[in-house]
Design goal:
27 helices, globular, 53% helix, 4 domains, alpha/beta, Fumarate Reductase Iron-sulfur Protein, Chain B, domain 2, 6% strand, four-stranded parallel sheet
Length: 453
């Protein structure tokens, strides 16, 4: 793509980076077919190529128009386009630059500003998020009335609130340290939203890692990874979260080196792996950020590196694996989780259009409930085509987006690997037992053979 930045403009590091990324685009249009929003709307401006043109105009002309804001906000940041692109266009970092520019110079309504501010102050903090869920649980029965009053976004948010109240106290898992001085040592990132919605995932990860002889450290001062505010264009807030995590993890590393920082939420993993880029110009943190980013591993990566132990029971359950965008496109981990689930004795079913986003995309289902809802229904329809016993994914956002739309339970990848290698059966599998599925005997067998409860 030909650009027309002036020398003065290129003196700005943001413009210089945007220029380098833009020039790689060759207008081929291969990205269009794999873009979820374009598949739904057919509007070129809702495609990666169309948005790249809008971003080019934004940076060259130093202006942010309502049209630019509207169509760039509708991007899911699923990065399917990057998987497709033959030219290696770094769309992920280009849209990050654009969102930061929009946040600084764009024009949004007071209602939009308020919602974005509330989300940025609530979701990254487990205590506040839990309180919000409890209040949301009280309002959930009235979401139909709220929608009829024209408040679509609050109604969409209430639809995502779990139907049952969660425990009022957040119980962080303890570090699990063995006595083997040569054991691998890792820090497990809990995830701020996942810690509230599904703490069982972290506990399953600890059991699985300990069973493989790994020492697990849960870092006390760890905070939100920063992905949420980063996606909102609040770049300085994202950097603050990154710095706090780097300080917390390097303090643990000074005591004794870590072999990896394990992440079980794929959206967080994509963010932490990008810390080196986010803090590249921060003299106080650049080197440590790059080191921490290099240590970050999705749990499937780490388990594959050390070798999955043979399964203790061979269930043959039919699994539909939903590949979270942040894992398959953001981290390029598409085959590895499937390989581990296959080794664990599960039968893998391929979901049609597996490359398309489910519509969760962080807070996208709150800002764009209509498009998000269409993608949700499309994903659920594709899952129904393969009639799975269980749906497995690696991202809490996807699980919350799709739950309730199918009779099959949603389970995290690590919970299935934990169960297969000697842990307790995932709680969600109780739905199969209630439906008369012959899972009950398998669950009882897992309880009897569980190595770590």
């Amino acid at each position: 793509m030909q650009t027309s930045f002036t020398a003065v403009q290129l003196a700005d590091p943001t413009n210089a980076r945007a220029d380098a990324i833009l020039k790689r685009c060759v207008h081929c249009g291969l990205c269009i077919a794999t873009c979820p929003t374009y598949v739904l709307t057919g509007d070129e401006r809702d495609s990666p190529r169309g948005r790249i043109y809008l971003m080019k105009q934004m940076f060259e002309e130093r202006q942010v128009t309502p049209s630019m804001t509207y169509h760039i906000d509708r991007c899911l940041s699923c990065f399917s386009c990057m998987t497709t692109c033959p030219s290696g266009v770094d769309y992920m970092h280009l849209v990050d630059l654009a969102r930061t520019r929009i946040e600084m110079k764009g024009h949004r309504t007071p209602r939009q500003h308020t919602l974005r501010w509330i989300l940025s102050k609530v979701l990254p903090h487990p205590g506040r998020f839990r309180l919000a869920l409890m209040l949301g649980g009280l309002a959930r029965p009235f979401r139909g009335l709220i929608a009829r009053l024209g408040l679509e976004r609050p109604a969409a948010a209430l639809a995502l609130v779990p139907p049952r109240l969660l425990k009022t106290k957040i119980a962080r898992p303890r570090s699990e340290i063995g006595k083997n001085p040569k054991a691998k040592r890792v820090a497990l990132m809990l995830g701020c939203v996942q810690e509230v919605l599904a703490p069982s995932i972290s506990r399953a990860a600890i059991r699985l890692l300990r069973r493989h002889g790994v020492d697990v450290v849960v870092v006390k001062d760890e905070t939100c990874c920063g992905a949420l505010v980063h996606s909102l264009g609040k770049e300085e807030e994202a950097r603050r979260y990154a710095r706090r995590n780097i300080d917390a993890w390097t303090a643990v590393i000074r005591e004794k080196p870590l072999d990896a920082i394990i992440v079980t939420t794929s959206g967080c993993g994509t963010m932490v792996k990008d810390y080196g880029n986010i803090l590249a110009r921060d003299r106080g943190y650049a080197e440590r950020a790059a080191y921490v980013a290099a240590l970050a591993r999705d749990i499937t990566e780490f388990i594959d590196e050390i070798g999955l132990t043979p399964p203790m029971l061979w269930t043959g359950l039919r699994i539909a694996y939903h590949a979270a965008c942040s894992l398959q496109h953001g981290q390029k981990l598409d085959v590895l989780p499937l390989s581990l689930l296959d080794q664990a004795g599960f039968k893998i079913l391929q979901i049609p259009e597996g490359h398309l986003c489910c519509g969760s995309a962080g807070t996208y289902n709150l800002f764009e409930p209509e498009l998000s809802g269409q993608l949700r229904e499309r994903k659920l329809a594709n899952i129904a085509k393969v009639s799975p016993d269980v749906i497995v994914t690696a991202n809490i956002g996807c699980m919350m987006q799709l739950r309730g739309g199918t009779a099959a339970p949603f389970v995290h990848t690590v919970e299935m690997l934990d169960w297969a290698t000697g842990g307790p059966a995932p709680e969600a599998l109780g739905k199969l037992k209630d439906a008369g599925h012959p899972i009950e005997a398998l669950v009882e067998l897992a309880k009897q053979t569980a190595l770590v409860d």
